[in-house]
């Protein structure tokens, strides 16, 4: 992280905010995934955007990228301990979002269903 933050909320949003970062973290919560697996789990993310968000999470120490010296290249993504510490917050966000949707008579339709992590 090469930026100076004064507000902890701003720091949090800068690091884990983004259209796909929370979904990436949610899917990596209890498993190691390859790029194509993440892409299938988050089909609305273009390969370019998914790559960008993965790189930002790696730069901030939230995920670990393991490259294996094989042909074709094999790359796996997993959460660091710091990344794992954010999962309870994501779970709370999911609960809040479910309550909001329920209050507005909207049925959730996403991969972040409670109990999958």
Oligomer: single chain
**C-alpha geometry:** globular
Q: Report the mean per-residue pLDDT as an integer.
A: 90
Distance from N terminus to C terminus (CA atoms, Å) equals: 28 Å
Give me the count of strands.
Answer: 3
Number of helices: 6
Layout of helices and strands:
Blueprint: H1 8-16, H2 21-28, E1 33-34, H3 35-41, H4 47-59, E2 63-68, E3 74-79, H5 81-84, H6 87-103
Antiparallel strand pairs: 1-3, 2-3
Structure explained in plain terms:
By secondary structure, the chain is mainly alpha-helical. 50% of the residues lie in helices and 12% in strands. The chain is built from six helices and three strands. A three-stranded antiparallel β-sheet has the order 1-3-2. Strand 2 and strand 3 form a beta hairpin. The longest helix has 17 residues. The chain is globular. The two termini are 28 Å apart.
Nutshell version of this structure?
The protein is mainly alpha-helical. The protein contains six helices and three strands.
Structural key phrases:
mainly alpha, 6 helices, 3 strands
């Amino acid at each position: 992280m090469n930026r100076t933050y004064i507000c902890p909320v701003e720091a949090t949003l800068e690091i884990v905010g983004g259209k796909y970062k929370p979904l990436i973290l949610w899917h990596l919560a209890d498993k190691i995934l390859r790029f194509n697996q993440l892409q299938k789990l988050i089909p609305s993310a273009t390969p370019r955007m998914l790559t960008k968000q993965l790189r930002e999470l790696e730069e901030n120490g939230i995920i670990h990228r393991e490259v294996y010296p094989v042909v074709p290249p094999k790359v796996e993504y997993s959460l660091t301990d710091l990344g794992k510490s954010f999962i309870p917050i994501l779970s709370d966000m999911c609960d809040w979002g479910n309550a909001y949707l329920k209050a507005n008579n909207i049925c959730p339709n996403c991969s972040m269903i409670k109990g999958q992590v």
